[in-house]
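Protein modeling request. Please complete all fields; requests missing the sequence field cannot be processed.
Requester role: graduate student
Desired output: 3D structure, token encoding
Chains: 1
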Amino acid sequence: MMVRLCGFGFLISVMVLLSACEDVTKGSAVSLSPQTTSPEASAIISTAPVESVQSWARIKLQNLIFGEQNSSEGRVFQEWKAADVPQEPFQVVYQLEDVSVNATFANLSEEERNQLTDHIRVDGNVEWKVDKSGNSTNQLSIRFHQGSTPFVLRIGDLPAITFVRKEPVSYAFNPSAGRDVPHLIVWAQEYAPRLLIPEGERSVEVVFSEEMRGDLPMTMEGVPVAAKWVDTKHLLIQLDNMRAGENGKRELFLRMDNLRDLGGNRLGAGRENLLVQQVPSTTWRYVQSGETAGGGPRDIFYDQLIVSDDRQTYVGIVRLGGSMGDGDGTSYAFILEQKGKEPVVIENVFYSTIEPDNQPIQWIDDKTLMYASYFGVYAYDIEKREKRMLHEADPEEAHNINYASYDTTRGLLHLLTYENRHETSGLERLTYSAGDSMPQRTQDYTTTVEVAKYSALDMTITPTADGTYWTRIQDGVPYTDYERNSGGKFTTKGITRLVTKQGVYLQQFEKGEYQLQASAWILWQPGQAAKKIAPLPEGSIIFASGEDLFARQDDTYVIYDRARNKWASWQAPNGEKTAEPVRGKDGMYRTTVERIVKQ
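Delivered output (599 residues):
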């Protein structure tokens, strides 16, 4: 299925675009010979002589920059020096709602600029104006809005420029003839779109939505990749020189920003690169029973599975990477899998900072998923394929969300939000009842503290059938309150990490010079004395999977033995040697399947 981008909204200033230098693409010329110009454009190109009064425009031209924009984004997509500008009339293809052109000249007097401006000609059905807000008389900026058909711009003795708006060129994975190769394309934006394929594939074929010119993608170093065009739409890419990636993957990064179709159109924003990843074959199983989990052809590509109660539906999670800036959080893709149905991408990229039960998305009933970040809490209906906002933080980020959790027993959505993040670490508590748009609000509920630079402690909320575990800060460190539904409150030092029938596991902290320092783990039954858990060597990372605590120690995994209060080497139920327990409420592990090499 081809994926297309659509533009919408109002005009963004071209000067804002020119300051966004990270978006500038310096590509090859998109000029076309007259016979390949689109029929619509050809119909309005006039052969009338250029007005001689601006015969110096070409001589004084220094550069020509084209930008496009709508209400949500803007970018520069072409930048030419004077020598790169074609001598003959040419065509520029843009993709968003509005397009702009900025011309810079040398030693242009105000009189010459006015003379040039007065003789601009635009043929075609489009709104346009000259932007005179710039301070320099050497610049001429023209902005076009809502061009319903191709239109032509003439500036002095520069060649006529025909503007044509088109949908972006798109592409998809094309399995080899007669082979059903599992694959997954994730449009991961700034993390680079990625094509996930099984280990052992020696080539991939990409099919484009339009007929393409013969340019080849480039490596990150700017060298053409080993590839060939089968025809004008099908590109066969060899996978001979892949690099080692994370978790046993092999990777090949492709720069495709130089690719153009025959009409000069390019790939859409966020599609100009492609990361091809070969993924080792794995099987998902449950830690307690060893039974197979999931079962779909794309399971090998997922880093987590979040399974519904009936085990007929699950969400496959692809970990894309950490925060692009300061702070905590991880970006994921969420893919809905249902037996006998095609996968549905819920989110191509979601920046998650809130992960109840060690997972970034959770089921709140048989047909609804919930996930959250600093910026909002969202619900997704798997039957309607609709996402809706449950709570939104303000655009200024003063009231960002610290934590969110759903009480399935009583149908309550609990939130901790900043009272004003710019001024204080104080949090207020919000509780939404089912169907209510206004929450019950508890101001000055607690505060949060830093656990790392630019990273505040997520104050966990863990509802259970009998009560709820709440985290508060007391004397500068986290404490947990357990409030029973029937009444009664119990408190102990630490933050809730895992609730089981045998008790709740909490991580304890002490004050450090600048931030909290992890000190110990305990097992607690409300109303009873807490029991200290045997420590692990410094640097061991403890995580919860199902109802067990695991940790990675050197090249092996250990599991906490409650009965003996010690950490023991973990063995997979089926004796697999390459098994890896995976964090999350469902309690799963995955094991690598040895690849059979055909002789």
